[in-house]
Design a protein that fits this description.
Blueprint: H1 5-20, H2 25-57
InterPro entries: TatA/B/E, TatA/E
GO molecular function, one term: protein transmembrane transporter activity
Subcellular location: Cell membrane
Amino acid sequence: MADIGTPGFILILIAALLLFGPKKLPELGHAFGRTIREFKSGMRDMMKDESNANAQTKAPESE
């Protein structure tokens, strides 16, 4: 995967500013941050559920 770098990042910011305007960018940033937090939380819950399911399926060894 190619590295965007500083010039590419600046170009993306300018394009976003032109597309959405200066008043919408903070709202979009908040919505994007909220979406990322929810995604991470969902992934954590899914991983926790999966590890719990794996722990329950292991049969205890009886001697």
